[in-house]
């Protein structure tokens, strides 16, 4: 399993990639310290979080390599993912998206700087 950040996404996210920061791809299901409430629709929702290196990540045992470094995720969220995924930005609407070889996973992925 791997994630590729496009050049546009990499350029826009560069400001969050500071030393001592980890990336978390959080499946918004109400589980873990970063998901305050579950998404109330039937759609799949993810947030890309930038957290301090000492953040409690015990719920995030899945480590996904990417071209920007390791991305932590909840192991069971793997069922919603594809083996090869891409994070991109729709420049017209400034929305981040997560997609895989089987299509779009989340067309409006949140990005949060919690570091």
Give short descriptive properties of this protein.
115 residues, mainly beta, Hypothetical Protein Aq_1857, Chain: A, eight-stranded mixed sheet, 6% helix, globular
Verbal overview:
Helices cover 6% and strands 42% of the residues. The mean pLDDT is 89. It starts with a strand and ends with a strand. By secondary structure, it is mainly β. It is globular. It has a single domain, classed as Hypothetical Protein Aq_1857, Chain: A (Sandwich). It has one helix and eight strands; from the N terminus they run E-H-E-E-E-E-E-E-E. An eight-stranded mixed β-sheet has the order 1-6-7-8-3-2-5-4. It holds the Pfam family Fe-S_biosyn. This is Core domain-containing protein. Residues 1-113 form the Core domain.
């Amino acid at each position: 399993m791997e994630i590729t950040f496009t050049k546009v996404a990499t350029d826009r996210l560069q400001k969050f990639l500071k030393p001592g920061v980890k990336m978390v791809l959080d499946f918004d299901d109400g589980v873990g310290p970063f998901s305050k409430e579950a998404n109330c629709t039937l759609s799949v929702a993810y947030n890309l979080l930038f957290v301090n290196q000492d953040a409690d990540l015990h719920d995030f045992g899945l480590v996904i390599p990417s071209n920007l470094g390791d991305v932590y995720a909840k192991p069971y969220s793997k069922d919603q993912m594809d083996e090869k995924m891409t994070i991109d930005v729709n420049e017209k609407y400034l929305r981040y998206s997560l997609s895989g070889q089987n299509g779009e996973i989340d067309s409006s992925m949140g990005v949060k700087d919690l570091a």
